[in-house]
Amino acid sequence: MSDLFTMAVTVNGTRYERRVEPRMLLSDFLRHELGLTGTHVGCEHGVCGTCTIVLDGEPVRSCLMFAVQADGHNILTVEGLGTSENLHPLQQAFSDAHALQCAFCTPGFLMTLAPFLEKNPAPSEGEIREAIAGNLCRCTGYQNIVEAVKLAAEKMGREK
Amino acid sequence: MKPAPFTYYAPNQLEEALNLLAEHGYDAKVLAGGQSLVPTMNFRLAQPSVLVDLNRISELFYIHPGPDGDLLIGAMTRQSRVEHDPLVAGRAPLVHEAMPHIAHPQIRNRGTFGGCIAHADPAAELPAVSLALDARFRVRSRSGERWIPASEFFVGFFTTALEPDELLVEIALPPIPPRCGYSFQEVARRHGDYALVGVAATVTLDQGGRCHHARLVFLSVGDGPVEARQAEETLRGQVPSPELIRAAAEAAASTDVDPSSDIHASADYRRHLVRVLTRKTLQQAFERAGMEMDE
After folding, report:
1. pTM to 2 decimals?
2. Who among A23, A28, A58 is closest to B6 (CB)?
3. Per the CB < 8 Å rule, is B109 touching A69?
4. Residue of B104, B112, B189, B191 to mutate, interface with A, max A Cβ within 10 Å
5. Which parts of chain B fold into alpha helices (H)?
6. pLDDT tens per residue across span A83-115
7. CATH number of B58-173: 3.30.830.10, 3.30.465.10, 3.40.50.720, 3.20.20.70?
8. ipTM
Protein backbone atom coordinates (compact mmCIF):
# COMPACT_ATOMS: atom_id res chain seq x y z
CA MET A 1 0.00 0.00 0.00
CA SER A 2 1.25 3.47 -0.84
CA ASP A 3 1.65 6.26 1.70
CA LEU A 4 -1.35 8.00 3.18
CA PHE A 5 -1.86 11.70 2.54
CA THR A 6 -3.61 14.08 4.86
CA MET A 7 -6.14 16.20 3.04
CA ALA A 8 -8.76 18.77 3.97
CA VAL A 9 -11.73 19.54 1.79
CA THR A 10 -14.93 21.51 2.22
CA VAL A 11 -17.99 19.57 1.10
CA ASN A 12 -21.42 21.23 1.21
CA GLY A 13 -20.06 23.82 3.63
CA THR A 14 -18.52 21.32 6.07
CA ARG A 15 -14.77 20.95 6.36
CA TYR A 16 -13.47 17.37 6.45
CA GLU A 17 -9.97 16.19 7.15
CA ARG A 18 -9.01 12.64 6.24
CA ARG A 19 -5.97 10.50 5.55
CA VAL A 20 -6.26 8.79 2.18
CA GLU A 21 -4.31 6.71 -0.26
CA PRO A 22 -3.45 8.84 -3.30
CA ARG A 23 -5.14 6.35 -5.62
CA MET A 24 -8.53 6.82 -3.96
CA LEU A 25 -10.92 8.39 -6.47
CA LEU A 26 -12.81 11.46 -5.35
CA SER A 27 -16.10 9.65 -6.07
CA ASP A 28 -15.13 6.84 -3.68
CA PHE A 29 -13.91 9.34 -1.10
CA LEU A 30 -17.28 11.10 -1.07
CA ARG A 31 -19.19 7.84 -0.80
CA HIS A 32 -17.02 5.68 1.43
CA GLU A 33 -15.07 8.16 3.58
CA LEU A 34 -17.76 10.80 4.00
CA GLY A 35 -20.84 8.59 3.55
CA LEU A 36 -22.27 10.98 0.96
CA THR A 37 -23.81 8.32 -1.27
CA GLY A 38 -25.86 10.78 -3.32
CA THR A 39 -22.95 10.96 -5.74
CA HIS A 40 -23.43 7.87 -7.87
CA VAL A 41 -20.77 5.83 -9.61
CA GLY A 42 -21.60 4.45 -13.02
CA CYS A 43 -18.90 3.85 -15.61
CA GLU A 44 -15.85 5.08 -13.67
CA HIS A 45 -14.21 6.28 -16.83
CA GLY A 46 -15.79 9.64 -17.42
CA VAL A 47 -18.48 8.72 -19.90
CA CYS A 48 -21.79 8.45 -18.03
CA GLY A 49 -21.68 11.63 -15.95
CA THR A 50 -23.55 10.24 -12.94
CA CYS A 51 -20.66 11.07 -10.58
CA THR A 52 -20.68 14.75 -11.57
CA ILE A 53 -20.05 17.12 -8.64
CA VAL A 54 -19.43 20.84 -8.47
CA LEU A 55 -15.77 21.68 -7.77
CA ASP A 56 -15.09 25.35 -7.04
CA GLY A 57 -18.26 26.26 -8.92
CA GLU A 58 -17.73 24.09 -12.01
CA PRO A 59 -19.19 20.66 -12.77
CA VAL A 60 -16.54 17.93 -13.03
CA ARG A 61 -16.40 14.13 -13.01
CA SER A 62 -15.52 12.96 -9.51
CA CYS A 63 -14.41 9.56 -10.90
CA LEU A 64 -11.66 11.27 -12.92
CA MET A 65 -10.03 12.98 -9.96
CA PHE A 66 -8.07 11.61 -7.08
CA ALA A 67 -9.37 12.63 -3.67
CA VAL A 68 -5.98 14.14 -2.75
CA GLN A 69 -6.39 16.56 -5.64
CA ALA A 70 -9.41 18.07 -3.89
CA ASP A 71 -7.23 19.12 -0.95
CA GLY A 72 -7.99 22.77 -0.21
CA HIS A 73 -10.94 22.91 -2.60
CA ASN A 74 -14.66 23.46 -2.26
CA ILE A 75 -17.15 20.80 -3.34
CA LEU A 76 -20.90 20.75 -3.71
CA THR A 77 -22.66 17.40 -3.98
CA VAL A 78 -26.35 16.65 -4.43
CA GLU A 79 -26.70 16.46 -0.63
CA GLY A 80 -25.86 20.16 -0.50
CA LEU A 81 -28.27 21.20 -3.23
CA GLY A 82 -31.55 20.93 -1.34
CA THR A 83 -33.27 18.93 1.37
CA SER A 84 -36.39 16.78 1.07
CA GLU A 85 -38.33 19.51 2.90
CA ASN A 86 -36.80 22.28 0.85
CA LEU A 87 -35.99 21.08 -2.63
CA HIS A 88 -33.81 23.10 -4.98
CA PRO A 89 -35.99 24.51 -7.80
CA LEU A 90 -34.26 22.12 -10.20
CA GLN A 91 -35.12 19.14 -8.01
CA GLN A 92 -38.73 20.32 -7.76
CA ALA A 93 -38.86 20.75 -11.53
CA PHE A 94 -37.43 17.25 -12.10
CA SER A 95 -40.24 15.89 -9.91
CA ASP A 96 -42.95 18.05 -11.53
CA ALA A 97 -41.89 17.27 -15.10
CA HIS A 98 -41.26 13.53 -14.53
CA ALA A 99 -37.61 13.99 -15.47
CA LEU A 100 -36.56 10.80 -13.71
CA GLN A 101 -37.60 7.19 -13.57
CA CYS A 102 -34.98 5.01 -11.89
CA ALA A 103 -33.12 8.18 -10.77
CA PHE A 104 -29.65 6.69 -10.89
CA CYS A 105 -28.45 9.42 -13.24
CA THR A 106 -30.34 12.25 -11.52
CA PRO A 107 -27.64 13.51 -9.10
CA GLY A 108 -25.25 13.87 -12.03
CA PHE A 109 -27.79 15.80 -14.07
CA LEU A 110 -28.61 18.08 -11.13
CA MET A 111 -24.98 18.86 -10.39
CA THR A 112 -24.34 19.58 -14.08
CA LEU A 113 -27.41 21.78 -14.39
CA ALA A 114 -27.28 23.80 -11.17
CA PRO A 115 -24.11 25.71 -12.15
CA PHE A 116 -25.30 25.83 -15.77
CA LEU A 117 -28.49 27.68 -14.81
CA GLU A 118 -26.51 30.08 -12.64
CA LYS A 119 -24.41 31.06 -15.64
CA ASN A 120 -27.20 30.89 -18.17
CA PRO A 121 -30.53 31.60 -16.43
CA ALA A 122 -32.61 31.56 -19.64
CA PRO A 123 -31.12 28.86 -21.86
CA SER A 124 -32.48 27.79 -25.23
CA GLU A 125 -33.45 24.16 -25.80
CA GLY A 126 -30.27 23.71 -27.84
CA GLU A 127 -28.12 25.08 -25.02
CA ILE A 128 -29.84 22.78 -22.53
CA ARG A 129 -29.19 19.74 -24.71
CA GLU A 130 -25.57 20.79 -25.14
CA ALA A 131 -25.22 21.23 -21.37
CA ILE A 132 -26.49 17.72 -20.64
CA ALA A 133 -24.59 16.06 -23.50
CA GLY A 134 -22.15 14.60 -20.99
CA ASN A 135 -24.80 12.86 -18.87
CA LEU A 136 -26.41 9.58 -19.83
CA CYS A 137 -29.98 8.67 -18.91
CA ARG A 138 -31.30 5.29 -20.02
CA CYS A 139 -34.90 5.79 -18.88
CA THR A 140 -36.37 9.12 -19.84
CA GLY A 141 -35.21 9.72 -23.39
CA TYR A 142 -34.13 13.16 -22.14
CA GLN A 143 -37.30 14.92 -23.28
CA ASN A 144 -38.66 15.44 -19.78
CA ILE A 145 -35.24 16.38 -18.46
CA VAL A 146 -35.13 19.21 -21.00
CA GLU A 147 -38.68 20.18 -19.98
CA ALA A 148 -37.65 20.20 -16.32
CA VAL A 149 -34.73 22.52 -17.01
CA LYS A 150 -37.04 24.93 -18.85
CA LEU A 151 -39.47 24.76 -15.94
CA ALA A 152 -36.73 25.39 -13.37
CA ALA A 153 -35.29 28.26 -15.37
CA GLU A 154 -38.73 29.87 -15.60
CA LYS A 155 -39.37 29.44 -11.90
CA MET A 156 -35.95 30.65 -10.83
CA GLY A 157 -36.33 33.64 -13.15
CA ARG A 158 -39.66 34.55 -11.54
CA GLU A 159 -38.24 34.26 -8.03
CA LYS A 160 -35.40 36.66 -8.79
CA MET B 1 -12.04 -0.48 -11.78
CA LYS B 2 -9.66 1.06 -9.25
CA PRO B 3 -6.20 2.38 -10.07
CA ALA B 4 -3.19 0.39 -8.97
CA PRO B 5 -1.11 1.98 -6.18
CA PHE B 6 1.40 4.67 -7.10
CA THR B 7 3.65 7.18 -5.42
CA TYR B 8 2.13 10.62 -5.66
CA TYR B 9 3.87 13.96 -5.95
CA ALA B 10 2.10 17.30 -6.28
CA PRO B 11 4.85 19.89 -6.54
CA ASN B 12 4.10 23.61 -6.29
CA GLN B 13 7.03 24.61 -8.47
CA LEU B 14 7.86 23.69 -12.05
CA GLU B 15 11.50 23.06 -11.11
CA GLU B 16 10.39 20.44 -8.61
CA ALA B 17 8.29 18.68 -11.24
CA LEU B 18 11.22 18.66 -13.68
CA ASN B 19 13.48 17.19 -11.00
CA LEU B 20 10.95 14.43 -10.36
CA LEU B 21 10.71 13.62 -14.07
CA ALA B 22 14.51 13.55 -14.35
CA GLU B 23 14.70 11.24 -11.37
CA HIS B 24 11.92 8.81 -12.32
CA GLY B 25 12.05 8.85 -16.14
CA TYR B 26 9.82 6.25 -17.76
CA ASP B 27 8.35 5.16 -14.40
CA ALA B 28 6.66 8.51 -13.96
CA LYS B 29 3.49 9.75 -15.58
CA VAL B 30 2.48 13.39 -15.65
CA LEU B 31 -1.02 14.12 -14.34
CA ALA B 32 -2.49 17.20 -16.00
CA GLY B 33 -6.29 17.31 -16.26
CA GLY B 34 -6.44 13.54 -15.90
CA GLN B 35 -9.42 13.19 -18.24
CA SER B 36 -7.59 10.58 -20.34
CA LEU B 37 -5.00 9.30 -17.87
CA VAL B 38 -7.34 8.57 -14.96
CA PRO B 39 -9.76 6.43 -17.03
CA THR B 40 -6.84 4.34 -18.33
CA MET B 41 -5.60 4.00 -14.75
CA ASN B 42 -9.09 3.06 -13.56
CA PHE B 43 -9.06 0.28 -16.16
CA ARG B 44 -5.46 -0.54 -15.13
CA LEU B 45 -4.42 -0.16 -18.75
CA ALA B 46 -1.89 2.28 -17.30
CA GLN B 47 -0.16 1.47 -14.02
CA PRO B 48 2.46 4.16 -13.53
CA SER B 49 4.47 3.70 -10.34
CA VAL B 50 4.95 7.46 -9.93
CA LEU B 51 2.47 10.23 -10.63
CA VAL B 52 3.61 13.84 -10.91
CA ASP B 53 0.55 16.05 -10.53
CA LEU B 54 0.93 19.48 -12.17
CA ASN B 55 -2.30 20.95 -10.84
CA ARG B 56 -0.59 22.98 -8.11
CA ILE B 57 1.93 24.61 -10.42
CA SER B 58 0.20 27.96 -10.86
CA GLU B 59 2.82 29.28 -13.34
CA LEU B 60 1.51 26.84 -15.98
CA PHE B 61 -2.00 28.35 -16.11
CA TYR B 62 -2.16 31.41 -18.40
CA ILE B 63 -3.17 32.91 -21.71
CA HIS B 64 -1.31 36.03 -22.82
CA PRO B 65 0.16 37.68 -25.90
CA GLY B 66 3.82 36.98 -26.61
CA PRO B 67 6.49 39.46 -27.69
CA ASP B 68 6.35 38.75 -31.45
CA GLY B 69 2.61 38.57 -31.98
CA ASP B 70 2.25 34.98 -30.79
CA LEU B 71 -0.50 33.96 -28.43
CA LEU B 72 1.00 32.00 -25.54
CA ILE B 73 -1.01 29.40 -23.63
CA GLY B 74 0.32 27.73 -20.50
CA ALA B 75 0.13 23.96 -20.78
CA MET B 76 -2.13 23.57 -17.73
CA THR B 77 -4.73 26.09 -18.85
CA ARG B 78 -8.11 24.39 -18.61
CA GLN B 79 -9.87 23.73 -21.90
CA SER B 80 -13.01 25.53 -20.68
CA ARG B 81 -10.95 28.67 -20.06
CA VAL B 82 -9.46 28.53 -23.56
CA GLU B 83 -12.95 27.96 -24.97
CA HIS B 84 -14.33 31.15 -23.42
CA ASP B 85 -11.24 33.37 -23.57
CA PRO B 86 -11.78 36.53 -25.70
CA LEU B 87 -8.09 36.72 -26.61
CA VAL B 88 -8.22 33.19 -28.04
CA ALA B 89 -11.47 33.97 -29.89
CA GLY B 90 -9.87 37.04 -31.47
CA ARG B 91 -6.36 35.80 -32.19
CA ALA B 92 -6.84 32.08 -32.67
CA PRO B 93 -10.42 31.68 -33.95
CA LEU B 94 -9.67 28.17 -35.23
CA VAL B 95 -8.89 27.10 -31.67
CA HIS B 96 -12.03 28.85 -30.43
CA GLU B 97 -14.10 27.02 -33.04
CA ALA B 98 -12.61 23.61 -32.20
CA MET B 99 -12.85 23.78 -28.38
CA PRO B 100 -16.58 22.91 -27.98
CA HIS B 101 -15.97 19.69 -29.93
CA ILE B 102 -13.69 18.35 -27.20
CA ALA B 103 -15.74 15.89 -25.14
CA HIS B 104 -18.28 17.45 -22.76
CA PRO B 105 -18.37 20.60 -20.61
CA GLN B 106 -17.51 18.65 -17.44
CA ILE B 107 -14.43 17.19 -19.15
CA ARG B 108 -13.32 20.57 -20.47
CA ASN B 109 -13.60 22.07 -16.98
CA ARG B 110 -10.82 19.77 -15.92
CA GLY B 111 -8.99 18.83 -19.12
CA THR B 112 -6.02 20.99 -20.08
CA PHE B 113 -4.85 22.52 -23.34
CA GLY B 114 -1.35 21.08 -23.06
CA GLY B 115 -2.51 17.71 -21.78
CA CYS B 116 -4.62 17.13 -24.89
CA ILE B 117 -1.58 17.88 -27.08
CA ALA B 118 0.96 15.85 -25.11
CA HIS B 119 -1.41 12.86 -24.95
CA ALA B 120 -1.47 12.83 -28.79
CA ASP B 121 -4.65 10.84 -29.20
CA PRO B 122 -5.17 10.45 -32.98
CA ALA B 123 -8.85 11.30 -32.46
CA ALA B 124 -8.12 14.48 -30.50
CA GLU B 125 -8.88 17.93 -31.85
CA LEU B 126 -5.99 20.01 -30.52
CA PRO B 127 -3.09 18.10 -32.14
CA ALA B 128 -4.74 18.64 -35.56
CA VAL B 129 -5.55 22.27 -34.80
CA SER B 130 -2.04 23.06 -33.54
CA LEU B 131 -0.52 21.46 -36.63
CA ALA B 132 -2.86 23.44 -38.91
CA LEU B 133 -1.77 26.64 -37.16
CA ASP B 134 1.97 25.83 -37.19
CA ALA B 135 2.00 26.08 -33.41
CA ARG B 136 5.25 25.69 -31.52
CA PHE B 137 5.66 23.93 -28.21
CA ARG B 138 8.02 25.02 -25.45
CA VAL B 139 9.42 22.01 -23.67
CA ARG B 140 11.39 22.05 -20.42
CA SER B 141 13.55 19.54 -18.64
CA ARG B 142 15.93 19.81 -15.71
CA SER B 143 18.79 20.28 -18.15
CA GLY B 144 17.24 22.95 -20.34
CA GLU B 145 14.58 24.09 -22.73
CA ARG B 146 13.75 23.63 -26.40
CA TRP B 147 11.04 24.61 -28.85
CA ILE B 148 9.44 21.89 -30.97
CA PRO B 149 7.31 22.82 -33.99
CA ALA B 150 3.99 20.98 -34.20
CA SER B 151 5.18 19.39 -37.46
CA GLU B 152 7.92 17.54 -35.53
CA PHE B 153 6.05 16.95 -32.28
CA PHE B 154 3.54 14.25 -33.22
CA VAL B 155 5.50 11.17 -34.17
CA GLY B 156 2.93 8.36 -33.98
CA PHE B 157 0.12 6.67 -32.12
CA PHE B 158 -0.12 8.42 -28.71
CA THR B 159 3.56 9.28 -29.22
CA THR B 160 5.32 12.63 -29.25
CA ALA B 161 8.88 13.91 -29.50
CA LEU B 162 8.90 14.47 -25.71
CA GLU B 163 11.65 12.65 -23.84
CA PRO B 164 10.61 11.04 -20.53
CA ASP B 165 12.27 13.83 -18.53
CA GLU B 166 10.67 16.56 -20.62
CA LEU B 167 7.50 18.50 -19.95
CA LEU B 168 5.37 20.51 -22.37
CA VAL B 169 5.04 23.89 -20.63
CA GLU B 170 3.75 26.33 -23.25
CA ILE B 171 2.01 26.47 -26.62
CA ALA B 172 2.77 29.38 -28.94
CA LEU B 173 0.17 30.13 -31.61
CA PRO B 174 1.56 32.38 -34.37
CA PRO B 175 -0.34 35.52 -35.47
CA ILE B 176 -2.83 35.14 -38.29
CA PRO B 177 -1.66 36.70 -41.58
CA PRO B 178 -3.96 39.00 -43.59
CA ARG B 179 -6.44 37.32 -45.98
CA CYS B 180 -6.41 34.17 -43.90
CA GLY B 181 -9.46 31.97 -43.42
CA TYR B 182 -10.04 28.97 -41.21
CA SER B 183 -12.57 26.26 -40.44
CA PHE B 184 -12.90 23.34 -38.06
CA GLN B 185 -15.54 20.68 -38.57
CA GLU B 186 -16.00 17.11 -37.47
CA VAL B 187 -18.53 14.33 -37.65
CA ALA B 188 -19.32 12.35 -34.52
CA ARG B 189 -22.31 10.13 -33.86
CA ARG B 190 -23.23 12.16 -30.81
CA HIS B 191 -21.94 15.57 -29.78
CA GLY B 192 -18.89 15.06 -27.59
CA ASP B 193 -18.10 11.58 -28.84
CA TYR B 194 -14.79 10.88 -30.50
CA ALA B 195 -14.99 12.17 -34.03
CA LEU B 196 -15.28 9.63 -36.85
CA VAL B 197 -13.39 12.20 -38.91
CA GLY B 198 -12.51 15.81 -38.24
CA VAL B 199 -10.54 18.43 -40.09
CA ALA B 200 -8.82 21.72 -39.28
CA ALA B 201 -8.29 23.95 -42.29
CA THR B 202 -6.45 27.22 -42.80
CA VAL B 203 -6.02 29.07 -46.10
CA THR B 204 -4.26 32.31 -47.00
CA LEU B 205 -4.93 34.25 -50.20
CA ASP B 206 -2.39 36.42 -51.97
CA GLN B 207 -3.24 39.93 -53.14
CA GLY B 208 -4.42 38.59 -56.47
CA GLY B 209 -6.92 36.29 -54.76
CA ARG B 210 -4.96 33.10 -55.39
CA CYS B 211 -4.47 30.50 -52.70
CA HIS B 212 -1.03 31.27 -51.33
CA HIS B 213 -1.04 28.73 -48.54
CA ALA B 214 -3.38 25.96 -47.42
CA ARG B 215 -3.29 23.57 -44.51
CA LEU B 216 -5.66 20.67 -44.07
CA VAL B 217 -5.11 18.44 -41.06
CA PHE B 218 -7.34 15.47 -40.31
CA LEU B 219 -8.03 13.64 -37.09
CA SER B 220 -9.25 10.07 -36.57
CA VAL B 221 -7.87 8.84 -39.91
CA GLY B 222 -4.37 7.70 -38.91
CA ASP B 223 -1.76 7.37 -36.17
CA GLY B 224 -1.95 11.04 -35.31
CA PRO B 225 -2.91 14.29 -36.98
CA VAL B 226 -2.69 13.65 -40.75
CA GLU B 227 -1.75 16.49 -43.05
CA ALA B 228 -3.34 16.33 -46.52
CA ARG B 229 -0.28 17.34 -48.56
CA GLN B 230 -1.65 16.38 -51.94
CA ALA B 231 -4.81 18.40 -51.38
CA GLU B 232 -2.72 21.35 -50.21
CA GLU B 233 -0.57 21.08 -53.34
CA THR B 234 -3.72 21.05 -55.49
CA LEU B 235 -4.79 24.35 -53.98
CA ARG B 236 -1.49 26.20 -54.02
CA GLY B 237 -1.29 29.10 -56.48
CA GLN B 238 -4.82 28.54 -57.76
CA VAL B 239 -7.87 30.80 -57.70
CA PRO B 240 -10.39 29.16 -55.37
CA SER B 241 -13.47 27.84 -57.15
CA PRO B 242 -15.99 25.09 -56.52
CA GLU B 243 -14.11 22.91 -59.05
CA LEU B 244 -10.80 23.50 -57.28
CA ILE B 245 -12.35 22.61 -53.92
CA ARG B 246 -13.79 19.42 -55.38
CA ALA B 247 -10.37 18.50 -56.79
CA ALA B 248 -8.73 19.12 -53.41
CA ALA B 249 -11.39 17.05 -51.64
CA GLU B 250 -10.82 14.21 -54.09
CA ALA B 251 -7.06 14.37 -53.54
CA ALA B 252 -7.52 14.35 -49.77
CA ALA B 253 -9.89 11.39 -49.80
CA SER B 254 -8.14 9.23 -52.38
CA THR B 255 -4.46 10.01 -51.76
CA ASP B 256 -3.78 11.74 -48.46
CA VAL B 257 -5.60 9.57 -45.97
CA ASP B 258 -5.55 5.86 -45.33
CA PRO B 259 -8.20 5.38 -42.68
CA SER B 260 -8.92 2.06 -41.03
CA SER B 261 -12.25 0.39 -40.32
CA ASP B 262 -13.51 -0.13 -36.81
CA ILE B 263 -16.78 -0.72 -35.02
CA HIS B 264 -17.74 2.95 -35.45
CA ALA B 265 -17.14 3.43 -39.18
CA SER B 266 -15.73 1.63 -42.19
CA ALA B 267 -12.66 2.93 -44.01
CA ASP B 268 -14.86 3.75 -47.01
CA TYR B 269 -17.23 5.80 -44.92
CA ARG B 270 -14.32 7.67 -43.35
CA ARG B 271 -12.99 8.42 -46.85
CA HIS B 272 -16.42 9.72 -47.79
CA LEU B 273 -16.41 11.97 -44.70
CA VAL B 274 -12.93 13.24 -45.60
CA ARG B 275 -14.26 14.25 -49.03
CA VAL B 276 -17.34 15.98 -47.62
CA LEU B 277 -15.55 17.71 -44.75
CA THR B 278 -12.76 18.93 -47.01
CA ARG B 279 -15.32 20.56 -49.28
CA LYS B 280 -17.21 22.15 -46.41
CA THR B 281 -14.19 23.45 -44.51
CA LEU B 282 -12.45 24.82 -47.61
CA GLN B 283 -15.63 26.58 -48.69
CA GLN B 284 -15.95 28.20 -45.28
CA ALA B 285 -12.24 28.99 -44.96
CA PHE B 286 -12.05 30.70 -48.37
CA GLU B 287 -15.18 32.70 -47.56
CA ARG B 288 -13.68 33.79 -44.27
CA ALA B 289 -10.50 34.76 -46.12
CA GLY B 290 -12.61 37.18 -48.11
CA MET B 291 -13.55 35.21 -51.23
CA GLU B 292 -17.07 35.26 -52.53
CA MET B 293 -17.87 31.65 -53.26
CA ASP B 294 -20.86 30.22 -55.06
CA GLU B 295 -21.37 26.56 -54.50
Report:
1. 0.95
2. A23
3. no
4. B104
5. 14-24, 37-42, 79-84, 86-91, 93-98, 105-108, 113-119, 125-132, 150-153, 229-235, 242-251, 267-288
6. 999 999 999 999 999 999 999 999 999 999 999
7. 3.30.465.10
8. 0.94
